[in-house]
Amino acid sequence: MSDTEQNWFKPKRHGYGATPSNWKGWLATIGFAGVIAVGSIAWVQALTDETRLIGMLGWALALVGAVWFFCRFARKKTDGPWAWRWNGQLYREMFEPGSDDR
């Protein structure tokens, strides 16, 4: 299996993070969004007046944990490091001292 088949995401051209680069990346992203949406609706609908505060705190913690795990997964499946970019160029390379391109 080649590297392009193993990498489901590619670094974003603008900003920070990654974007899906093949059907596996898109399927993982859409599946994650669907699970978050359905799980959130089910969780919040199951709350009662007595469990509302604890339930909402639990939901927020579960949501943050799920996003954290998905980001770790996406980083492992990304072709290249996550870094701030503008037009494909790393920010730290754009603003290095000593570059006289101005």
Keywords:
102 residues, mainly alpha, two-stranded antiparallel sheet, two-stranded antiparallel ribbon, 4 helices, 55% helix, elongated
* Number of extended strands: 4
Q: Order of strands across the widest beta sheet?
A: 1-2
Radius of gyration: 19 Å
Strand content: 5-15%
Number of domain units = 1
Shape call:
elongated
**Cα-to-Cα separation, first versus last residue:** 44 Å
* Helical residue percent band: 40-55%
Question: What does the average pLDDT come to?
Answer: 83
* Tally of alpha and pi helices: 4
Characterize the main sheet. 2 strands, antiparallel
What low-confidence regions span 5 or more consecutive residues with pLDDT below 50? none
Structural class: mainly alpha
**H/E topology pattern:** HEEHHEEH
Descriptive notes:
6% of the residues are buried. This protein has one domain (18-94). It is elongated and about 55 Å long. Helix content is 55%, strand content 10%. The protein has 4 helices and 4 strands; from the N terminus they run αββααββα. The model has no long low-confidence stretch (mean pLDDT 83). Strand 1 and strand 2 form a beta hairpin. With 102 residues, it is mainly alpha-helical.
List the helices and strands and how they pair.
Layout: H1 3-6, E1 9-11, E2 18-20, H2 23-45, H3 52-76, E3 85-86, E4 89-90, H4 91-94
Antiparallel strand pairs: 1-2, 3-4
Helix pairs in contact: 2-3
